[in-house]
Amino acid sequence: MNRFQFVADHQQRYGVKRLCQILGIPRSSFYYWQATAPARAAREAADAALAVRIRAVQAAHDGTYGAPRITAELSDSGPPVNRKKVARVMRRYRIRGLRLRRRVQTTIPDPAASKAPDLIRRDFTATAVNQRYVGDITYLPVGERGFLYLATVIDLHSRRLAGWAIAEHMRTDLVIDALNAAQRTRGSLDGAIMHTDHGAQYTSKDFAEACTAAGVRQSMSAIGSSADNALAESFNATFKRETLQGRRAFTDEREARLTAFRWLHRYNTVRRHSRLGQQSPINYENNIRTAPATLAPAA
After folding, report:
1. How far is CA 41 from CA 37, 46, 298, in A?
2. If exposure means fewest CB atoms within 10 Å of the residue's CB, which of 113, 159, 267, 292 is most exposed?
3. Model confidence over 252-289: pLDDT tens digits?
4. Cα–Cα distance between 41 and 186 in angstroms, integer?
5. Distance (Å) of CA 74 to CA 71, 89, 161, 238, 261
């Protein structure tokens, strides 16, 4: 209870003047507090109602969204809401997203393997879809000591997960399967760049042949530099954070595969991306296709 409330509760018995003197507060401040009570009550009610809406969004997205994505979700389904207000209400009601977990290394370089030049140079953008991709492998902890491995191929323009594969191993077949999945998604990858780290899978002869067959040019980051493949690293961290949700591991392989499939599908079709104006990758691509062309005025 604050001092103003104490005065309000006991003013009939002791008087406002005496209570304010004892508590060391100006009477004008108390009267101002009293006059603005209805506005504060309305604000409290509005915050409580917003907290209910925020929790509904969190529940619909497995508790993974932070203030920016929640703001976009709320604005699409109702009256526009300010992001700072959403963040403030989340802090007040202790509604939190998920935080990053420690990453385990999955990149095992082969010193004897041939290396491709870095064609990306930390520029993780593209002027159109199907021009530049990044690929990587991350692990899925299962049970006490088991692992599954996820290989991904992400479009640098739309951030769409164009191809992916899950297996119990990290052999070259895993990354080739992900590349083939991306080729099926796009129809053709001819002329595209595929940027990866120096893992033995990506520097292998078999993967190089798969890229050549698909018409893909290989690009590789510097050895030991995670920043040179930062977009893939960020995707992996988000995937792990939002699927494990603070747990050490998935219960079993079936849960890991089902959870991964569900999240990867939602990533492409539902999950909002800040770089895409809070659109999902597939919605972004669809909007690009349907956007009317801008014609120059006739002379």
Report:
1. 6, 9, 59
2. 292
3. 999 999 999 999 999 999 999 988 999 999 999 999 88
4. 55
5. 5, 13, 25, 22, 26
